[in-house]
Amino acid sequence: MNYGPLIYFGVVTSLVASWIGFVAVPRQTVGKLHPDVSTNAASAVVSYPSARSGEAAQGRDVYQSLGCSACHTMQVRPASGGSDIARGWGKRRTVARDYLQDPAPLLGSSRLGPDLANYGERLGTNSFALIRLYNPRLVAAGSICAPVPFLFETRPIRGGVPSAEALPLKGSAAPEAGSEVIPSLRARQLAAFLASLSTSVDLPEAPLPVAEETASK
Amino acid sequence: MSGSNSNCTGQTCAGDASSRLPVLYLFAGGIAWLFAGIALSLAAAAKLQFPALLTVCEGLTYGRLVAAAGPAFTLGFALQTGFGLALWLLARTGQSRVAVPGIAFVVSLVLNASLTLGIGAILLLGPTGIPGLEIPRQAAPLILAAVGLLSLIGIATYASAEAGCGSPARAHLLAALVTIPVLYLTAQLGLLFLPIRGVSQSITAGWFQQGFLYLGLAPIALAALYYLVPLLTERPARSTALAPIAFWSWTIFAAWTGAVDWVGGPIPAWWLTVGIAANVLLVIPTTLFFINFQGACLFSRKVPVRFAAVSTISLFVWGGLNAIFSPRCAQSLVHFTEFNVGLHELFLFGFLAPALFTGIYAAVPKLAGREFPCRITPQVHWFFTAAGVALMVGSNLAGGYLQGRHLAVAGVPLVAVDHSLRPWLLIHAAGLACFGFAQVALVANSAWLLFECVKPLKDPVISLFATTPASTASGK
Description:
Strand content of chain B: under 5%
Distance between the termini of chain B: 38 Å
Shape of chain A: globular
Number of helices of chain A: 6
Largest sheet of chain A: 2 strands, antiparallel
Radius of gyration of chain A: 23 Å
CATH architecture of chain B: Up-down Bundle
Number of domains of chain B: 1
Oligomer: heterodimer
CATH architecture of chain A: Orthogonal Bundle
CATH class of chain B: Mainly Alpha
């Protein structure tokens, strides 16, 4: 007996059913989520998530092209599902709405490096991010993160006055006398993207812990 | 699915002659990409040990190396070798000829050219960031066209069968050839060309990634085992009644496994629950496959059967571990760790690759018209492949589990977690090198065989296009 047609239609039916579940339904549900609109303390209407600035949006492309998501995730699990919140990687779990403005969410699947969903909140100064990119071991001894020197230019100091953009490197990390390390445009874009990473916004489906406490009182 | 194999068994048949050129080329291309993937992975492993290594060139960042190694293994090696094996098996089991073998050969050339373009683009321009679909959109349609055409040629070969219609091997091959182009087309449209914002992309990417492995590549490997194990061991599969149950349960459950990658992530809960349930239920078909094959595979002295034994055991272990570690409580421990990488490698290098090697060792002598000249190198190939897989998978599972234990304690700094993981990563790299060395033995033996084939012929190029085996052509 020729089972070909039976196998063909069985396999196609199974595929179509899973396609409906994993492609069609997400497009109709998660894909049609809207930003959360609320008013802040100053009674101004704010929308979350908002679109990234031009420099940060371009920095996202740099992040993607360098393959940073091979080591870094951008998703915070709930307190019951891991130590993410206890490690200070976020104040609440991340939800689908957090990624509405991302053309392609870079969620990641490996944590050789820390989660970056809220990296902008713990970054400090912009130059810290740039030094971190120039040589991760300068800010985290023993880090296995590779430096990206090709995003920086080491050049002689022009006119005897260091550039305002030069990295404040000291000690053994400093370039040789008379030289300075200048971040390229892509380095600055990447730093702007990292600085923009934040999800600490109160959402109906993922309230911040403080809001939860207030609500319970 | 009666479980019977066709009569075209031991000897070279017409199907072999028609499939010789495209199949041998696909095998050669597959092994070349396996080497490329191993080289890229070794470079990435070296960067984890020495972060300052190869930092001058943007094309050699850890992320790009890992992203390029993925399609080199799955598309370059597993899919390409799988297509070659599928064409050979379809012609053989159906006692027919490969449909349009000349076009199949040309399409294989296009597939390799587009893969070179795509993987080169990952290194030079960067990956898409979509798991399983790392190749940039400029090169992806060409790969899709080649994959679609090869699948159509396979289906046409299936349709032209004169025998063997009910064999489980042919059922698995048809399922794979239907699934691969459909999944790849849907994923490219939904993720590269008509993407929708937000995490719905991640859900679709998970569906594609798991589906491609489980529903596209795995059935080809299973088909090879269903056809070759009884043939090589001269013992039938233990229970032909189990074959359709295993086939349908695998086909249905594997289609729903995708979401488990995002356990704890920003995905609505019901998808995760469905994904977890499907992953747990996969233990049913993997157990049935093991029952059907293990009696025939174990304790054989034949190298292809030993590869089949590694493959079936790996699938069984993978099924068990996958069922145990898919639920939320277990995933919360091993999620984002090397443990999940180890599970993936157990499937890819432990199950798929050895099954494909079984097929290569069975097919190449039939296609070339003579046996492999060296009897020692296959033993070396098997031993170092098995040792490499054990080292790679074992180190990732053990190291990843410990990594998860450390990550679960908020007080342990991430640098300390990575520091404790590095010895395991080093063992993994040693396993990968071992696996790579094993493939050198296969290539050396194959090159020797090729040399033996073309040596007596005046025009070796014409001989490749001939429709009769080399031994016949040379008068042997």
